[in-house]
Specification:
About 40% of the residues lie in helices and about 15% in strands. With about 280 residues, the protein is an alpha/beta fold. The chain has one domain: Glycerol-3-phosphate (1)-acyltransferase, CATH 3.40.1130. Strands 1, 2, 3, 4, 5, 6, 7 and 8 form an 8-stranded mixed beta sheet that branches. The radius of gyration is 18 Å and the shape is globular. The N and C termini lie far apart (about 45 Å).
Length: about 280
């Protein structure tokens, strides 16, 4: 069964690359106004096939129907590369990933064709370009998925959120959708410290060997809790609001995951250290 899944997995890439390339060609001919919204739709279909291939059973809590109407910045906790597949199968979106992902075989080419915004953490001078790219995709009505922790983890705690990317929704008044991902089962067993590394990918784990192990799993259960949107219209794009938005999303997502409970309001003064 593992080899069958591998063959299907590899055969999917030419199909996606062809469809995505045709969509980009269409955008060149007809104009780029809705390019990223069209591409994000193709990505959604591709992710849906992958969730079926890996037998990922998704339970959705909350309403996600409104995410089809306009561009939203989607904020989620991060436990590994499966997160993007799971969320990408629920609604059309554009990814934000570290620049190193672009060099990964197949996955890197997929991310590039999907319109992914690549983050260069080594050169802070490029941050304005990052914000511009996120904003351009939001303006076209595409949803953008951001993992503000900056890195995946083993889920024991929610890492601090980076406030800088919150400048993009503030600049254009785009809504922010906090999401809490919780993997519940693997091979019909509750996720625990003993088996979580079968699905979580973090630290210095080898990607190829982890993916090969994923093909052997019989099934994965995950709950996606979609929290009410945070409206940013009318808020000034300044350091204070960016930090308060990052704190609010951290509190909401962490609270649902049992990691945090405080939920500060944007515009209110905070005490203690700021989340950076």
């Amino acid at each position: 069964m593992r080899l069958v899944k591998l063959v299907v997995f590899l055969s999917l890439w030419p199909v996606f690359f062809t469809l995505a390339s045709l969509s980009h060609l269409q955008a060149r001919i007809q104009g780029p106004t809705r390019r990223w919204r069209r591409v994000s739709g193709i990505t959604r279909n591709f992710c849906s096939v992958l969730t079926s291939l890996f037998n990922i059973r998704i339970t959705i809590e909350g309403d996600h129907r409104g995410l089809k109407s306009r561009g939203h910045l989607i904020i989620s906790n991060h436990l590994g590369y499966l997160d993007g597949v799971v969320l990408g199968s629920i609604f059309p979106l554009i990814f934000v990933s570290k620049k190193e992902v672009r060099r990964w075989p197949l996955l890197g080419q997929w991310k590039a064709l999907s319109g992914t915004v690549f983050i260069d953490r080594e050169h802070k001078v490029k941050i304005p370009v990052l914000i511009d790219e996120i904003e351009s995709r939001l303006k076209q009505g595409a949803n953008v998925l951001l993992f503000p922790e900056g890195s995946s983890s083993n889920g024991e705690r929610l890492l601090p959120f980076q406030p800088v990317p919150f400048a993009a929704p503030l600049r254009m008044g785009a809504p922010i959708i906090p999401i809490t991902l919780t993997y519940t089962t693997v091979n019909q067993q509750p996720v625990s410290e003993l088996n979580r590394d079968l699905i979580y990918w973090y630290g210095d784990m080898d990607l190829v060997s982890h993916l090969w192990g994923l093909f052997a799993l019989r099934g994965i259960g995950v709950t996606v809790r979609i929290h009410p949107p945070i409206e940013t219209a009318g808020l000034r794009n300044d350091s204070r609001n960016r930090k308060q938005l990052s704190r609010m999303c951290h509190a909401i997502i962490g609270g649902a995951a049992g990691k945090d409970s405080a939920r500060p309001k944007v515009g209110s003064r905070q005490t203690g250290s700021a989340t950076q």
